[in-house]
Every structure is written in structure tokens, then in C-alpha cells.
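Chapter review: from sequence to fold.
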Amino acid sequence: MKDGGPGRWRWPAVAALALAMTLAGTAAPGGAAGSLVPSGALNGASAIPGDPGNDPAAESLMVLTLQAARSGGYAGTLSVTVNGQGGTRSGELRIVHADAGHLVIEAPDPPGPASGSLLVQAGQSRSVGHGPGGSINRGQTVVADDVEPDGSLQQMLGKYRVLLEGGVRVLQRDAKVVRIERRTDHRLVERWTIDATTGLLLRRESYDAGGRVERSIAFTEVQDPYVPTVEDLHRPVQGGPSSPAPQRWLTAGELSRGAKALGMPETLPASYRLESGAILKAGGASVVQFVYTDGLEDVSLFAQPGTMARSGLPASAREVHLRKVAGLAWDGFPRGVAWQDGQRMLTLVGASFTDELTQMANVLPQAPLRRSLRQRVGHLLGWVKGQLP
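The C-alpha cell string follows.
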């Protein structure tokens, strides 16, 4: 990504945003981040269609877990470890959870010094503050009221198979371990360790293509059940005088219109569908973010004016040949692929395996950099400007 001008958004900004998604769950509006459960899977858990490839006991545990994520009140401390770009990063999250729409998460500010951050979810309102006098971000979450009640869970089980691996003792609790693997090649994707009685997700681990633990989020202590107090949930989120313009989530109507205007499909290969979108500032540039989910994992597509350059990407980035242009891809969480589409750059970032990211990139807009595309870029900038507060 080229330094200077509107395209000045180097890789550290992308990595910081993606890691923040993992640690604080800020990428998925409406999700119960502290429950360790993907937001996409929260859109219903009342019924799962039987599947001969799944273990019925594992399916039942998934239902119990998603119900706990929606309504269970608990508080505790989570240990978070991410093995990816830049080595191993770890920290702690302190969470107070009333229900899917009311929670507070205190976390170190990733990456870099642990100056601290605070996320407060109150209904549809979400606020995130970073450190004393640091930036502050406020926005309204998107209410997915037009989604089939059990659609996301069905979506997840259509792509992944769940199997019960056995019982363990965690924090003096009887727990069960559920293995989640990709149906197409039986590749291990995640393991969930679930309280057998309450459904509370005590540990969530995800794996890279080599079967190594890539991310781990686990309770080190927890109070469950827990009834949060008013003081627990109503925490002031403060920012410094130079706080940037807030990130703004798109409404359902804006999401559909924005995706269509920028040529982005509502579904992608590997069973991903468009879930949410936002307008944000990063490195001085106005960036449009679209979040796609397969029911388990989220992938973010960033569109911004500018020119792709290797110097702005991870050192491990390698050239890949896409459908119409050459791109750059990298492994290690968060994985990604970047390429040119005229005078804008598109970047896919997420936990999906590289083969899936490449498939997605090849159905998205691609075009060599040509100065004759000014009108197209002007349309992008005009649309972004119109959406910002």
C-alpha cells in the first residue's frame, strides 16, 4: 500500500484492526464478543436440522452454547493468545456479560503497549475507547431482523462438521470438547470446550492449515451465573481531544446499496454471506469495510483509494496470480490477500484459510491501475463522503 495521498494505509493498521476484532469483538455488530461465540451464529439456536455427518451430542452442545451466549449472565477473566504476524501476542480480557446486547469488555490495546481499552455494548449502541486520552469510537450496531431465525447456525453446519471428542475438567467444571472441521477436506478448524451443564464456552481454539493452535481464548476464572450491577454495565468511555471521526456501521438498507454501488456481491465462495459494513478512518484514508461470515468465521473486505505496494504489507507477502491481476497474499493470522481494482485497492483479511481467501478474491472486482478510471474513483470517494457523519 502506497505511502502518501489517500492510499496511505499501511499493513500495521490492517493488522491492528484485525487483531482488535479478535481481542474485543469489535468487528461484528450485535455479537456477544465475550462469549467466545461468533456473532454470526447468534441469529438463532432453537433448532438444528439433523445431519448424518454430525454427532447429535455435539449439535446439542452447540445449541446450549448459543443459548447461553444470548441470555446467560456471567463475569470473568479471559486469557487471549494469538500466534500470527509479528510473533505471539497475548493479553487478558475482563468481561461482564448480561446478555447478547449488554456487555462490557476491558482489554489491552492491541498491538503495542497495554495502555488499555474499554468496550461497552448497551443495546444497539456500542462504544470503544483506547487508553487515557486516546481515541474513541461510537456507533450503532446493525439489527439483522430480516435473517431467517436459524439461518446462521444452519449456514455454519452446512460448511462444518461438529464432533464430540470427550469430557474434561476445566475450572472445577465438567466440560465437553467439540471438534469443528471443514467438511470438504476434514481439516480441523476449531475446538470448543463447553460447560456441560450451562453451555458456557470455557475455551475456544482455532488452528492454522498445519494443525497448530493459532488463536486461543479461555476463561482463567469465571462467575456463572452472575447478575451484573448497574455500575458493571454503565462504564464511561472517554477519548482524547484528538479522537478521530467515529466508525459508523451501515444500516441494512445502506449495506445493500453500498455493496451494489461498489460492485461487491452479497455472497462469496466458501459459504460466506454479507453480514455488516462500516465507514472508518485509517491512516488518514476513508475506508469502506464489508464483513462476510460463514457462520463461524468472519472475513473483512476493505476498499480504499490508493495503490498497492509490497512495502506496506507483511514481509511474508508473496505474489499470487488472481483472475485478472497479480495480487499479494500472506499467511499467519490474520491471513490476507490484496490486489488492485483500478485506482482503488481491495484487501481481504481474516482467519479463513488461504485457499478460501483466494477463491473470494477471484469473484471480487479486479482491474489494473489505469488513470482513465478517475470517474470510478470519484464515485467511490463521493459515496464514502456522503456516508461519513
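Two observations follow directly from the output. The two ends are 26 Å apart (CA to CA). The helical segments are 11-24, 56-71, 151-159, 230-233, 252-261, 354-361, 374-387.
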